[in-house]
Structures are given as structure tokens and as C-alpha cells.
């Protein structure tokens, strides 16, 4: 399951540099997460790094992008292959 950033985001800028896949970017009003790049840090870390650093806890799982750990690992492998 990809993550999402809710409108409680305060644009503090701490999540974007933590994302190993480059899935987080500044949107029109708040930061956004690209569900095609978000693996919840599977393949990189045990926990989503953006969630760990968010001071307002506005990064829940995105119910419109449900994925299993295996699917997230497959996505991670695809992303890594495209970089190499």
C-alpha cells in the first residue's frame, strides 16, 4: 500500500529528503506522494522514513493504493532496475 500526505501537512520539508525512491514532491498546496514510486521504504528500510520524521503525523496508508509487501518489493525491484 502506498502512503499519502493529508491536508494536515504543514510543509515543513522534512519528509521529501527522507524518501529513498524520490516519491515525495511539493504539490500545489502541500507535499504529495507518487503512488507509483512509493514502496513504504520496502527494500530500503524496515519502516517508512517519512512517517518517522513527520512532526504532525499526516502520512497514513493510502486506501486507494492497496499493495502487499510482496507487491511493494516487486515495485522496489522495478524502480531499482530502471535506475541501473
From TrEMBL:
Cross-referenced PROSITE patterns: 4FE4S_FER_1 (PS00198), 4FE4S_FER_2 (PS51379)
Domain annotation 4Fe-4S ferredoxin-type: ranges: 1-29, 31-64
InterPro entries given in the database record: 4Fe4S_Fe-S-bd, 4Fe4S_Fe_S_CS, PSI_iron-sulfur_center, YfhL-like
GO MF: 4 iron, 4 sulfur cluster binding; metal ion binding
One cellular component (GO) term of this entry: cytoplasm
Alphabetically ordered keywords of this record: 4Fe-4S, Electron transport, Iron, Iron-sulfur, Metal-binding, Repeat, Transport
Domain of life: Bacteria
NCBIfam families assigned to the protein according to its UniProt record, in alphabetical order: di_4Fe-4S_YfhL (NF033683)
Entry protein name: Ferredoxin
Lineage summary: Bacteria, Pseudomonadati, Pseudomonadota, Gammaproteobacteria, Oceanospirillales
